[in-house]
Design goal:
The structure holds 2 protein chains of 2 kinds. By secondary structure, chain A is an alpha/beta fold. Chain A is built from 10 helices and 10 strands. Chain A has one domain: 3-Layer(aba) Sandwich (Rossmann fold), CATH 3.40.50.300. Chain B has 2 domains: 1-272, no CATH class; 286-503, no CATH class. In chain B, helix 1 crosses helix 6 and helix 19 runs antiparallel to helix 20. Chain B starts with a helix and ends with a helix. The chains are: A alpha/beta, B mainly alpha.
Chain lengths: 253, 503
């Protein structure tokens, strides 16, 4: 049943870029305490879906409601409820992490400086606080993006390849934070190409292909329905890419 | 495909990529194909816009020379030197800011099976292709202009243009090497990037010096001094000619080698090296204050944005020079200095919000996912712009006050804050309109020209009222009042438009 305060309700979402339809009538719902995996091949429409939820692109039709509101109708409310880690995040390269967190915390009205300090220490960023973000490695930049997404304790986390570049320690800590987040009633929309990770942490999964939802359910439900032993196999079968892969491998000899 | 055709194809590909990256910044992600193609077309077209502008400037210089006295015409090669220098120096630096920002171009070149020398030549040819048409038109005008001004002027101005090329390339190499010694966030590095156009200021100031020079074609200055002896060449001094040829050959050779070395540096990222071990130091401010502080930090540190802090500094320097060394106030009065130096300074600053907005619209730029109201964003852009304006404007006003001892110069300068605020609103309307049209703030050439024209009108109308007051014989403070009233009306009108065009 649809509850108006569900963290995320996507209903008939259509996103067009000119003549190209990137998202074609997508619908799914994210409840509190869930990690919903949005999976699909390259160009499936995952990123466009995330952009539409965040209000970075305007849907051609349909809606994406964050705690009952559309980004277009109340962008400040929607953005205050979301913590986003985007693929290859574009941060303010000329700032140091100190200055960047100061900026994000100020804009988001976060006064709990101890929480910011705790997150920085958890992700081992202390030694880089005066280093320009441009000089940080990919992994450390990703850590900066993760901390910035978490510091205002948002209800909905939107994570697009969040473990990109993170070391083992950071991944373990991040997974633990996500677990605690959903235990407290938060929700996570999680997009990744790493099926092993998705299989371990997602409570439900939606497979999209060519802008449409192909199948949806828990990992166990999908394994039974699609007869796959792993999420990777399920994805290939559900998107009918199994044959393509076989032919491509044949062509390579 | 034969070797030379392959080489040309490689240069063309690299040229296209350099134009794209420098035109739109290197971290543009998630754009649809149609937008990317449009951006590439706009970037390639912009070269021809610059060609048209420079062609017009050189034709103007040519005709201006014809109206001068014989002595005045002799400085024509110096004008040619200056404008060729600006044509090469400023666009090349600007290009490198964008092309080097992400480092992709340099990294890609390093993966090619080519020697260092081959990569340098490839980069040099591709970068030269970005200014080949403007350079060609400039030299064409200088050569063809010989029909009007005589062969000696043509020879001296061509020598001036070639020398200028060499010096510009050397200046670029020295700057690129110096940049790499300093962090982008170190205080000294920021100051250094602020004075990056010092060579351009120096060259501009040269016009004033030469214009005031008593030209004696046989004086040692006009024979032996590099560049200045081009005046001697125009006057028909054969010794000056021989020396000018030798100097031009030497400067040209040094410039060529400098260009080859600089070409890869221009495409290499300015990587900041880690500084001292950090400590936790976070001061939570109000939302408005934090956006303004962050914008100001970016303005002085980001290579892309720093031009909008430096360019007004150039005008401050020119004003101080005009007032104290050029004797402008005593010769032509404050009203002319106001129009010649102060109004262009305001026009330069008026593009600051444009660039700040543009940097927010790039791909997944972080700012767009933060809960900031549109009105707060407008207010922060206005405050940032006005802080820079009043900071630098106060220097200009004080510099003008010292010879005149009249408090009204402060009123005249500060009153330009109102049309500048109106310009910020115009910029906001433009970007909100662009977002609604899903053009993501990426302007077509015609749209950019339209925006510039509108910006000139918004700034020009109040200034027009100031001069109308002067023509009517109104006292100075009354002219300022006319400017303020006109500007206030503009502000109200643009506020109404801004509330209707929301992103």
């Amino acid at each position: 049943m649809f509850v108006v305060d569900d963290p995320l309700v996507v209903d008939g979402l259509v996103v067009r870029y000119g003549a190209k339809v990137a998202v074609d009538g997508l619908s799914f719902r994210l409840r509190p305490g869930e990690v919903y995996g949005l999976l699909g091949p390259n160009g499936a429409g995952k990123t466009s879906t995330i952009k539409a939820i965040l209000g970075l692109v305007e849907p051609s039709s349909g809606s994406a409601l964050v705690y009952g509101k559309r980004a277009k109708d109340d962008p400040v409310y929607v953005k205050s409820k979301i913590g986003a880690v985007l693929e290859n995040p574009v941060l303010f390269d000329s700032l140091t992490p100190n200055e960047f967190f100061e900026f994000v915390a100020s804009v988001r009205g976060v006064r709990d400086v101890d929480r910011i300090r705790a997150l920085i220490e958890a992700f081992d960023l202390q030694t880089y606080m005066e280093t320009p973000i441009a000089a940080l490695s990919l992994g450390n930049k990703q850590k900066v993006a993760v901390v910035a997404a978490l510091l205002h304790s948002p209800g909905l986390l939107i994570l697009d390849e969040p473990f990109n570049g993170l070391d083992v320690r950071a991944v373990a800590i991040f997974k633990d934070i996500l677990l605690k987040h959903i235990e407290k009633g938060g929700a996570v929309l999680f997009s990744t190409h790493i099926m092993e990770v998705a299989e371990k942490i997602c409570t439900r999964v939606g497979i999209i292909h060519q802008g449409r939802m192909v199948d949806e359910g828990t990992v166990d439900e999908l394994k039974q329905r699609i007869h796959g032993s792993s999420l990777e196999e399920i994805l290939l079968k559900a998107t009918q890419l199994e044959k393509d892969v076989a032919e491509a491998l044949k062509g390579l000899g | 495909m034969d070797k030379s055709a392959k080489g040309r194809a490689l240069v063309d590909s690299l040229y296209k990529e350099i134009v794209f990256q420098s035109y739109v910044a290197s971290r543009l992600t998630g754009l649809p194909t149609a937008q990317v193609n449009r951006l590439i077309r706009n970037g390639l077209r912009s070269k021809y816009v610059v060609t048209g502008v420079y062609g017009f400037i050189f034709v103007l210089i040519m005709f201006a020379t014809l109206t001068m006295s014989v002595d005045g015409r002799l400085i024509f090669p110096i004008e040619a030197f200056i404008w060729v220098f600006l044509l090469v120096f400023l666009p090349t630096l600007q290009l490198s800011y964008g092309a080097s920002a992400g480092g992709q171009i340099r990294e890609m070149l390093d993966t090619l099976p080519m020697t260092t020398a081959q990569i340098e030549r490839l980069s040099a040819r591709a970068i030269l292709k970005t200014i080949d048409a403007p350079l060609a038109i400039a030299f064409s005008v200088l050569i063809l202009g010989g029909i009007l001004v005589g062969p000696l002027f043509t020879l001296s101005s061509v020598l001036g243009g070639v020398s200028s090329l060499g010096i510009a390339m050397l200046a670029i190499l020295l700057l690129m090497r110096t940049f790499r010694k300093f962090n982008t966030t170190s205080r000294f590095g920021s100051v250094l990037r602020m004075v990056v156009v010092v060579p351009a200021i120096f060259v501009w100031v040269l016009t004033g010096y030469v214009a005031n020079l008593k030209v004696v074609a046989t004086s040692p200055t006009m024979i032996y001094t590099p560049i200045l002896n081009l005046v001697g060449v125009s006057a028909g001094n054969s010794s000056a000619l021989y020396l000018a040829l030798i100097y031009t050959l030497i400067i040209g050779a040094v410039g060529y080698k400098s260009f080859l070395s600089a070409s890869t540096l221009l495409l290499s990222p300015l990587v900041s090296t880690p500084q001292k071990a950090g400590r936790f130091k976070i001061r939570v401010r109000s939302q408005l204050a934090s956006i303004v502080v962050t914008d100001l930090r970016q303005v002085v540190r980001s290579p892309r944005l720093i031009g909008f802090f430096v360019t007004p500094l150039v005008f401050v320097t020119i004003l101080v020079y005009d007032l104290y060394f050029g004797g402008a106030v005593s010769r032509i009065g404050f009203d002319f200095v106001f129009l010649q130096d102060i109004v262009p300074f305001v026009f330069a600053i008026s593009y600051m919000p444009y660039v700040l907005y543009l940097s927010e619209l790039r791909g997944y730029s972080y700012f767009k996912i933060l809960p900031v109201r549109n009105s707060m964003n407008v207010l922060s852009k206005m405050l940032t712009t006005l802080i820079v304006f009043f900071g630098l404007g106060s220097i200009m006003a004080y510099a003008a006050y010292l010879p005149l001892h009249s408090i009204y110069v402060f009123a005249a300068v500060y009153s330009l804050g109102l049309p500048l605020a109106a310009s910020v609103l115009l910029t906001t309307v433009y970007f909100n309109y662009s977002i609604n049209k899903m053009s993501m703030g990426v302007a077509g050439t015609l749209t950019s020209i339209l925006f510039t024209v509108l910006n000139i009108i918004v700034l020009g109308i109040p200034v027009g009222f100031y001069y109308a007051g002067a023509l009517l014989g109104a006292p100075p403070l009354m002219r300022v009042a006319y400017l303020c009233v006109a500007s206030t009306v503009e502000l109200i009108a643009l506020l109404i438009v801004e509330t209707r065009v929301k992103p």
